[in-house]
Protein 1
Amino acid sequence: MATNRTFTMLKPDSIENGNIGNILQMITDAGFSIKAMKYTQLTESQAKEFYAVHAERPFYAELVEYMTSGPIIAAILEKDNAVVDFRTLIGATDPSEAEEGTIRSKYAESKGRNAVHGSDSDENAAIEGNFHFTGAEIF
Ligand code: CMP
């Protein structure tokens, strides 16, 4: 059954390009409420662990290097059908394939520098949220 929470990161390109405010506005305008949020920078070991599922992929080293290259914003979001609706809001991984009006179609630069992360399942949303936040940081 779908749960009502998902996990997101605004990636280093969003911060570098000055898009924090615009992206958060799109997220809240779409009906998501923020249950947890932090501005932080991933260490290499955190990024390797977070993306361990991609460890065998050719882009893994590049992904870890990129995700540790600058600060990110991590957040837990709440809305009915959160995982699916958030992936619709952000659009396809490759911005050239992202639907018009999605966050990635507006703000992503490439498959790697693609502005935002969104959990791909309820199970991963819970794992990823718990990776970044303690119980006391979630409201
Ligand atoms: P995300 O959905 O956050 O999680 C996995 C990430 O791997 C994905 O976003 C992309 O940023 C990245 N990724 C996927 N495919 C490629 C690729 N071919 N080259 C570089 N990065 C990729």
Protein 2
Amino acid sequence: MSFLKNSCCHESGSSIYQRMKHIADIFPLLETPRKIVITTHYKPDADAIGSSLGLYHYLIQYGHQVQVIAPSEVPDFIQWMPGADTVLNYEARTDEAVKALDACDYIFCLDFNHPSRVRTMEARLTAATQPKIIIDHHLEPLSNFFAYGESNPDKSSTCEMIYDFIVLHKGEQKINQEIMQCLYAGCMTDTGSFRFPATTASVHEMIAFFKHRGLEHSRIHEAIYDSYSANRLRLLGHVLHTLDLNEEEHYAIMSLSLGDAYKYEVKSGDTEGFVNMALSIKSIAVAVFLTERQNREVRISFRSKGNIDVSEFARKYFNGGGHFNAAGGVSHDGLEATINKIKTLISTKKLTQFIK
Ligand code: 5GP
Ligand code: MN
């Protein structure tokens, strides 16, 4: 069988909300200096922190008091971003984060579309009565959770959407080095260095604008891709050896057990991008990477080529979601049982229903 039988594309038009107000409706609210919290998803990646800090560096120029709160730590590979040292880690500094949440007038929610994505911060965020503004590009948003915003799964990255927000707000002239570095980094990583289908002309137009304003893009590639620890490379070697290949069924699975995570001293962000390695094999259409956590919890990353909707697969079987070709989910069955479950789902042809 082939997962790539149908060559048609999926329809992924912009989501339309009845209850959520347009993003431009918040502009009048931003005219006077306010206390603003910007938050993002648990285990934030470069798009999550890049969009949050990009917006931070924009809003502070209007006199707003802005606090970025990440539900968990900012990984090492994005610590170089200007302003990363101002981000509050909710898990580590809960009291300060709660104070900032209590005191703020608005909460921007970036790069996630459902309160469950902030995990340990979910109860606090749900209890907050201030207007929440979403800017995000994932599928299936919980739109009535947000008062204002923009949710567009056709967009390459939340970072690109922050640029659109600034342009709509007629603030292009305020785009400085800090903003460009943050937004470029998140857009670069979410598009697989400008190769995924969501890399539209508008992405390249944004980057052309940044280049005209003096962005040194190669320094950002270096900061992200050439700044790993030696341990991370050893870890990659180990993970590649776990490769479980089924070329007939066009899938590949790799995993990291809790014991090996300790052995290789894995830090947040160290496994970023590993799943794509399995997808680089010609015959492989679906790649899966599993990471074992405490208490039999397993986080799962799915990637696909072409017209296979792994987001729906993750949502249906692993309480997850994400994008059409890149999604994540969770299992509580332990590593081995989860791998077996995935294999069974694929070999009983359950995946074929996700070919669009
Ligand atoms: P990653 O595999 O890089 O962790 O995630 C791939 C994509 O799926 C990201 O856009 C991420 O936001 C999304 N994602 C990952 N885990 C989950 C999850 O548990 N639930 C949902 N809804 N999305 C997820
Ligand atoms: Mn993103």
